[in-house]
Amino acid sequence: MTDLPFMQKSAEVIKQLMEGGGGFLTVATPDEVNTMTIGWAQLGVFWNLELLTVAVRKSRHTFWLMERAVDFTVSIPWEDCSRTLAYCGSHSGREGDKFIACGLEKRAARKVQSPVVSLRGLHYECRTAFKAPMDTRFLNSEMESLYPQRDYHTLYFGEVLACYETD
Length: 167
Ligand SMILES: Cc1cc2nc3c(=O)[nH]c(=O)nc-3n(C[C@H](O)[C@H](O)[C@H](O)COP(=O)(O)O)c2cc1C
What we know:
The chain is built from 5 helices and 10 strands, in the order E-H-E-E-E-E-H-E-H-H-E-E-E-H-E. By secondary structure, the protein is α+β, with helices and mostly antiparallel strands. The strands form 2 sheets. Strands 1, 2, 3, 4, 5, 6, 9 and 10 form an 8-stranded antiparallel beta sheet that branches. It has a two-stranded antiparallel sheet with strand order 7-8. Strand 7 (106-107) and strand 8 (116-117) form a beta hairpin. The protein is globular, with a radius of gyration of 15 Å.
């Protein structure tokens, strides 16, 4: 395991999210752990905090869990996980345990309750610092077209407590 500055691999992270099939957003409540595929995220600084921000639509089971949890993790694979990412991006944790269905392993996180996905890749452990449901009054017309079902995102700003690579 190699600790890294949180922005060190930002270009590779965005490439994997946008072109490589995505990453895993994993969240645990006391009763349940779930993971889902994400394609959008932001790395940056607000409030003097190093942040990883994710966007979760209200229809996701993950949304329900994020609203109850205090932290989350994001795992970015450097190996080919395309089948697993496709599964976790098209099946809901409401229907069954995706870790079992995909043969995915969890690995305990170092600083947060939510585990990471055990894979060769980069992991962010995040404590939710702030959340912002989209205020639809401020959407321009092009943005509104992304939401024909009005299934808007909530943005979760996670303070990055640990960032590391695993083999
Ligand atoms: C490549 C890819 C990227 C995705 N990115 C997001 C995302 O950033 N935010 C989101 O809410 N859903 C995203 N999804 C959809 C969710 O992964 C999908 O609806 C998933 O089944 C939700 O699982 P859950 O109900 O267990 O939370 C993405 C799906 C794919 C295939």
